[in-house]
Amino acid sequence: MTTTQTRRFCYHLTEAPLAPGEVAIVGAGPGDPGLLTLRALSLLQQADCLVFDRLVSQDVLDMASVSAESYYVGKASRCHALTQEQTNALLVKLSREGKRVVRLKGGDPFIFGRGGEEAEYLIDHQVAFRVVPGITSASGCSTYAGFPLTHRDHAQSVTFVTGHCKGDNCLELNWDALSAPHQTVVFYMGLANAALISRELMQRGLPGSHPVALVERGTTSEQRQVLTCLDDLVDTIARETFKPPTLIVVGEVVRLAETLAVAQPEHVKAETHEVLGAVAW
Questions:
Q1: Cα–Cα distance measured from residue 107 to residue 201, given in angstroms and rounded to the nearest whole number
Q2: What are the backbone angles phi and psi of residue 163, rounded to the nearest 5°?
Q3: What are phi and psi of 206, to 5 degrees?
Q4: pLDDT, tens digit (0-9, with 9 covering 90-100), for 34-72
Q5: What are 104-116's pLDDT values in tens digits?
Q6: CA angle 33, 37, 40 (to 5 degrees)
Q7: Under a CB-based contact definition with an 8 Å cutoff, are residues 41 and 63 in contact?
Q8: Residues forming the active site
């Protein structure tokens, strides 16, 4: 590449620097730091403050400026470092102190990341912000697990669904639509409600043999996965001791992992191949 070509390439990556008092809501991707976007990396290195979630990997955090202050606001089931309201208020406080703030979220901030709620709060409090998308867990984890989310022979659509209850409202979903054939359904945060998920889908016509993939800590060196089926989903989770963060992927596409997993990145192959070899269809 010539010097002129290099300059032209860099020119297209430029944008206004992060200003004092501005908040950047940034998707950190599903864990592998190699999946971070160039724009996200640039903003990380400009930040005075990092406000980050539980699922942001340490490898990604290490890419930020060493002088950046860190604020952990992670959430796990029944265990929140800060409430969402407190996190919102922290972003405004740091902004009004003139800090350049990066609000770092696992995956994509606008896909089950509460990025929309935080953006609305910043608008209400007249705080300048920008949003940078990231690779969402469904896309990253399925690819690293060795199967696509759509395929002309198996799935003509894909649906992302929260498997987590809000308050006392436990998964009020359109189960009829989620049980339709020729699609892939990805449940985020669904381990605790796996029994409900499998029961509702089977009651609406999906066979107990319908394939399901469980992918834990996808795209990281700790990734592991199991291919199972709807009527064995709960037992598989217990037997293999799956823990959050784990995606539940329902659909015929997961069968393709048996042949396509050879294309996985080297750092996840050993664990996933071992588990895959122990599970038969």
A1: 26
A2: -100, 15
A3: -75, 135
A4: 999 999 999 999 999 999 999 999 999 999 999 999 999
A5: 999 999 999 999 9
A6: 95
A7: yes
A8: 53, 75
pLDDT in tens, 127-136: 999 999 999 9
Cβ–Cβ < 8 Å for 197, 190: yes
For the chain, the first-to-last Cα distance in angstroms comes to 49
Torsion sign across C-alpha atoms 114, 120, 124, 125 = positive
pLDDT tens-digit series, residues 114-161: 999 999 999 999 999 999 999 999 999 999 999 999 999 999 999 999
The C-alpha atoms of residue 79 and residue 82 are separated, in whole angstroms, by 9
Query: Which residue segments constitute the domains of the chain, with CATH numbers given?
Result: 14-132 (3.40.1010.10), 137-276 (3.30.950.10)
Strand-pairing partners, residue 70, are 50
Are the beta carbons of 86 and 129 closer than 8 angstroms? no
Kindly state the tokens that stand for 211. Answer: 């394939």
pLDDT at 126: 98
Q: Give the single-character DSSP code of 155.
A: B
Instruction: Please state, as a whole number, how many other Cβ atoms lie within 10 Å of the Cβ of residue 194.
Output: 23
